Amino acid sequence: MRCRSQKTGAHLLGLQIQLSSRPGWRASAETVIRAAPGPVRRPPHRRASVGPADPPPETPEAVLPSTVVPGGVSTPQLSAHLAVPPVGEGPWPGVVVVHEAFGLTDDVRDHADRLAAAGYLAVAPDLFSAGGARRCLRSTFRALNRGEGPAFGDLEAARRFLADRDDCTGRVGVLGFCLGGGFALVGATRGFDVSAPNYGFLPRDAERVLAGACPVVASYGRRDPALRGAADRLDRVLTDLGVEHDVHEYPDAGHSFLNRHPGPITALEKVLGGGHHRPSAEDAWGRILRFLDRHLRTAA
């Protein structure tokens, strides 16, 4: 199934963002290869540090491993980034990392690497594999709004990809940012063992959608104009449903405070009061890793 769209805009932070078809971030130029039988390991100089907020040092694109997640719905083979813990042979619990509207960027890969450094088998699938961000963004947002569509099948394929590996314990969580945060939140009732949405949009009928959800650790920024009140509402909904959760709103953070974007996006974020906020990001990563440890590793 190829993504089709006549328009290429998307609403982010209350603005109409027009996507360019010009080659840009590495995600649009990534070469897809089939997964090797065993774990695909990062070269030593690209392994993530265990620091909660500092990204690993950049290296040339050619040395970065990529893989394919089979069984996707939007396309039979999903381009993905696989990050394996650099120490030990496993098995490890897994985490599916869901990207923002900008696609599978270096920043998303770095988050997967950070999880691997903490002892998790992490895969970041490209939800735009069927046609790139220009073609797939609107259809992916529509799937999130409806709660059904190819993107959910793609995430289930990524979950199975990890759970079925010999080096995975079978317990798999989902973590996402913005668009991916919305998918991570809705995915809390779809086979994952823990959900970690970051500034994810809440479904209108959250009480129905989140009934029976797995444990949730969620992070929001109070200065995020698009998600005012979302943290309080999510906390109330999960409390009423009896779902174990840790929902926190950071007073000095805006949208995308855990992410690092290229220059033009960063400039726009600053105007809107968003962008990377190191103190909030460090605290959020600490909460996320403790929550994952309790519900993925210790529970296993």
UniProtKB/TrEMBL annotation:
SUPFAM superfamilies: alpha/beta-Hydrolases (SSF53474). Residues 35-61 are annotated as: Disordered. InterPro entries: AB_hydrolase_fold, Dienelactn_hydro, Dienelactone_hydrolase-like. Pfam families: DLH. Gene3D superfamilies: alpha/beta hydrolase. It comes from the Bacteria. Residues 85-295 form the Dienelactone hydrolase domain. GO terms for molecular function: hydrolase activity. This is Carboxymethylenebutenolidase. The lineage of its organism: Bacteria, Bacillati, Actinomycetota, Actinomycetes, Geodermatophilales.
